[in-house]
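Pasting as-is:
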Amino acid sequence: MTASVTTVGGVKRARRASALQKSWFRFTRRRAAVAGLAFILFEIVLTLTAPLLVKAGILYDPYAFVAPSYQPPSREYLFGTDEFGRDMMSRVIFGARVSYAVGIGAVFIGTALGLIIGSMAGLIGDWVDYLIMRVTDVLCAVPTLLLYILLMIALGGGLVNIIVAMSITGWIGMARLVRGHVLSLKQTDFVRAARAMGATSNQIINSHMLRNSMTLVIISAALGVPGAMLGEAGLSFLGLGISPPTPSWGQMIGTYQASIQAWPWLVAAPAIVLAITMLAWILMGDGLRDALDPNIRI
């Protein structure tokens, strides 16, 4: 995969594979990572097309009565029905829309904030670095779930407020990671040369720091999505997240936990799907880490 041979004018020339091609080749060699990516893509496509599938009659309406209450899993109702006779499989699929919206939305905003704040702290230094690091130290001293709970009490429930609450704290780890990487990049020759040529801090951040930090950022973001999904599930489990009748994995687990002995499928279906989804993201994140590691050669 290091090079391919092309013929130009009867002369054979070696064409080296690009860095992206090498990374993709390394990623595809990790079967677990490829399986995780395939499952994630399948879930995303399924959740995006779910309303169309309901209109086409392939899926049941997740809010409508379709069968007697507490029907166990069967060929017609794969995940059974709940206390209102609603199809659990449809509700689990629509619940994935909430988890993916929170996971990807919160991580995207937190990553963007972490990139900016971490780059400023590492490059500018002095009192800016001191102030940012002391703020992150204070926030890191508070347990994450407790901070989520306090923010949700202040903001109220709802999808947007969950994303805002997680974004407020989601930048902390990314900022510390980027700051450490920027501090090491500050000592490199190309950054010193850019400063000697009169480049501003913004130019150095945009042209050098962010570009050389993207590998760490992509890997950290991929591994941060399952954490955000679990956080949303925890908040919904406690009744501080998504309110009924909107389906959410954590909300369904919390609602039916008292009925797990009588109707175990009501808890098992969303719990198993949540666990498999988190595992898929972790496997894909591990694969990205191996594929994007510049120290790996193939």
